Hints:
The structure holds two protein chains of two kinds. By secondary structure, chain A is mainly alpha-helical. In chain A, helix 1 packs parallel to helix 5 and helix 2 (44-56) crosses helix 5 (91-115). Chain A has eleven helices and no strands. Chain B has helices at residues 37-45, 73-76, 93-103, 113-119, 135-148, 165-182, 193-199, 217-224, 325-331, and strands at 2-11, 14-23, 26-31, 52-57, 60-64, 69-70, 78-81, 153-157, 186-190, 202-207, 210-216, 233-244, 247-252, 255-259, 269-274, 278-281, 292-304, 307-314, 317-323, 338-343, 349-353. Chain B is globular and about 70 Å long. By secondary structure, chain B is α+β, with helices and mostly antiparallel strands. Chain B folds into two domains: 2-224, Rossmann fold (3-Layer(aba) Sandwich); 233-358, CATH 2.40.50.100. A six-stranded mixed beta sheet of chain B has the order 7-8-9-3-10-11, sandwiched between helices. Chain B has a five-stranded antiparallel beta sheet with strand order 2-1-4-5-6, with helices on one face. In chain B, strands 14-13-12-15-21 form a five-stranded antiparallel beta sheet, covered by helices on one side.
Amino acid sequence: MIFSSTDYDAIRLSVQVAITATLVSLPVGFGVAYLITFVRFRGKVLLEVLVNLPLTLPPVVVGYLLLLLLGRNGWLGSLLNTAGIRIIFTLKAAVIASAIVGFPLLVRSLRIGMEGIDPQLINASRTLGARWHDTLLTVILPLSAPGLVAGSSLMFARSLGEFGATIIVAGNIPGVTQTIPLAIYEYASSPTSETMALSLCIVSVAISLVVLFLHEVMAKKMARKE
Amino acid sequence: MQLAMTVQKNFGAFTLSADIAVSGERIGIFGTSGSGKSTLVSMLAGLLEPDSGEITLDGVCLFSSARGIQVRPEKRRIAMVFQQHALFPHLNVRNNLLYGYKRCPAEFRTVNFATLVTILELEPLLDRGVTNLSGGEKQRVALGRAILANPRLLLMDEPLSALDDSLRFQIIPYLKSVSEQFGIPYLFISHSLVEMRLMTDTVLAFEKGVMTGQSSSEQLARNRMGQSSAGYINLLELCSMTERDGMCAYRWQGGELLLSAGNRDTAAGLFELSSKDIILFKKHPEAISARNLLHCSVAGLFESGAKLGVEMTCGGGRLVAEIVPDAARELAIEKGSVVYAAIKASAFRRLAAATSQTRP
């Protein structure tokens, strides 16, 4: 199989979007998981519902809502437009769509990791003179590492396969916003390009396998360390 | 150390109400499970906010609901040793030990790392992870970590309850020696009267969220004798074991005690003997099956519930026996009377290898 330059672009863009969406979501996801796990506040249930909402909605609905929000006439889109920032039908939109759809998976994994931390360790840290942000960095963050790795892998894999929200909010522009799933969709729509669609499927599976393999290796390493 | 705590905390059906004013270096908080002692120390450490009241330590206000004061835990300089050790699993022994030390302001750093490591015998463990340490090793690391934070008060929340008996009494000398060596006062929380007697001078007793009394640890043990199924526990340091007729003869305060063969250990040791296992005779019995018959003088009597405690001097040692008032009348026991105490050889139980630090 010989890939065209737009196919290589689709592979590159897929990886680029997945990595960026994961990296951008990590600090936010960590903060949200921390809030849900350790902080008591009003509206906690509402926050949990909002975080998990993209998991239950069809990605197309997420994409459409993003279009309404970030479109030229959208509430946020019009503001960004005035500042000269265009989101819709750019790579940024693909990153945002992937980040939102994968976010619940990241938060869930982080939360499971954080819930497994013995509260006495946090108490010990505080009585040993650590301020809350010190405890966060020296106790909670390292002990959340397994959840962090699991969440990042899941989110990366989910971003790699994101289709519904991306096609609505970022379009399917070869070399600009076309990722592997969008390219496969295009090839699959054409009766003569089945081989190319299959080739991209193999690439997609290969990338996912590498990510999951790395995740397993890291998880085992961490378990051994413990 | 001077501590004043007047606090209330409500948890639905359970309310903790404490009014404490105590001074000393070795204070105990005694109570059964659910008596509120852990809640109390959590409030003192700043980990739990009381609903109302005031906490003052050495004249410094740590909490006052009226004045809106709540000093954060990291600012209180009150370190804790937890029941389940609470060692950081991602750090090795050295970094666990140094966690509080690094965060302690330089002007308060008086505890030397190397000295502490030597006292607690942690040198060979320094570069090991903490997850595979034994229970006793973990508790020594937890203790060292708390001491190295250079606290002005050390809270020990049932630090021995996660350990089996043999380890418990191995750790006590460490607990005592580090706080004495570095002059750190402590609050020791436990439901064990023996631990209280070995570790503390003054004890605050709690029951169902209310403080029921303040006394010396010895007095508390005597007060509880009548209610406790174990009675009053005599703690005896026995030494120089020799074997005789299949039994173990130990020296004790100028005399000798015969113990059953199960105690075959030549090392000196701390043994417990329940007040219930001592039988008193007015006159020397003609023949008895118990292997120990001690000639004793009654030093005093005390009431405990429906029972009577008889404190006796036997050679150079002291023992407490437990009898019912009818028996006291029959034996005509009073201060200064002479009695014979019979003790079975199997009544003794070794707690630990003896050191001067285990001596109550």
